From TrEMBL:
This is CN hydrolase domain-containing protein. Keywords: Hydrolase. Residues 46-293 form the CN hydrolase domain. One of its GO terms (biological process) is glutamine metabolic process. CDD domains: nit. GO terms for cellular component: mitochondrion. PROSITE patterns: CN_HYDROLASE (PS50263), UPF0012 (PS01227). GO terms for molecular function: omega-amidase activity.
């Protein structure tokens, strides 16, 4: 089964057949054994770092800040490094078209490729506003690099964040963004990893499909807010983890009360039992966990 097309009903048919309790795929008899044996066979530690960056309106400064932190994470032993959603631009629908660039040769992807290569890490490059030069549409896109600095996968946020909680928060990504239509997974020597962006975590299916296709982790660059963050940020990560008995990591920007959007922060790494391995507060910083122990 190739789970790269959300529009393909076969994907959902097969995924739903594999729900816990469905014939032949009881979750406890299947995933736990597979995950544990993967650790033993590979015998490798999988140190991950989530970088909760302070994001400003200055794109070159954001890229330089990201680079410093990626190099720091690598020097502390991380092999997988994650940046936050929208790390090169303020998070806001008015900013997306202004900051958008091509993922073929834009300044941000060049900088990300160099960071991955110089740090010798897999880099899950948060997300950036992407302008597709063929259709001129703007997407919220995560680009992923191997330790040679090669772009190995891209994920365009599938579920756009359109919310209106009266008196609390109104945000309509669809005012300026277009949704992606593919699920994303990539291979590493540490195992296969699935990727979603922020609001994508509210939908169980991408994580479920990734787990059933052998991913040991789902990684979500994200930027929850002060309304839904306290309520759902950790809950959703722990739910996706325990649903699928896989690692889940979500990496936020730091909170900036002078920005138009106040990110919740609290980047978090959750284990396959739904246990919080590492988390943080709202400030800039790096958290680490070993996904192999
Ligand atoms: O789902 C939420 O509550 C927040 C989602 C979000 O901030 C985003 O998708 O950027």
């Amino acid at each position: 089964m190739d789970a790269n097309d959300l529009a393909d009903p076969k994907i959902f048919d097969e995924a739903s057949m594999m729900r816990p309790g469905a014939t032949g795929y009881g979750i406890h008899g299947y995933r736990v054994v597979e995950v544990e044996s993967l650790w033993r066979i590979k015998g490798r530690a999988r140190p991950i770092a989530l970088i909760q960056l302070a994001v400003t309106a200055d794109k070159p400064a954001n890229l330089a800040n990201a680079r410093n932190h990626v190099l720091e994470a690598a020097s502390n032993g991380a092999n997988l490094v994650v940046l936050p959603e929208c790390f090169n631009s303020p998070y806001g629908t008015g900013y997306f078209p202004e900051y958008a660039e091509s993922v073929k040769d834009g300044a941000s992807v060049k900088a990300l490729s160099a960071m991955a290569k110089d740090a010798k890490v897999y880099l899950i490059g948060g997300s950036i506003p992407e302008r597709d030069l063929t259709d001129d549409k703007v997407y919220n896109t995560c680009t992923i690099y191997n330790p040679a600095g090669e772009l190995i996968a891209t994920h365009r946020k599938v579920h756009l964040f359109d919310i209106d909680v009266p008196g609390k928060i109104r945000f309509q990504e669809s005012e300026t963004l277009t949704a992606g239509n593919k699920l994303t997974q990539f291979d590493t020597e540490y195992g296969k990893i699935g990727v979603g962006i922020c609001y994508d975590i509210r939908f169980p299916e991408p994580a479920m499909i990734a787990a059933r296709q052998g991913c040991f982790a789902m990684i979500y660059p994200g930027a929850f807010n002060m309304t839904t963050g306290p309520l759902h940020w950790e809950l959703l990560q722990r739910a996706r983890a325990v649903d699928n008995q896989m690692y889940v990591a979500a990496c936020s920007p730091a909170r900036d009360l002078n920005a138009t959007y106040h990110a919740w922060g609290h980047s978090t790494i959750v284990g396959p039992a739904g246990d919080v391995l590492q988390t943080t507060d709202e400030k800039q910083g790096i958290i680490y966990a070993d996904l192999g122990t």
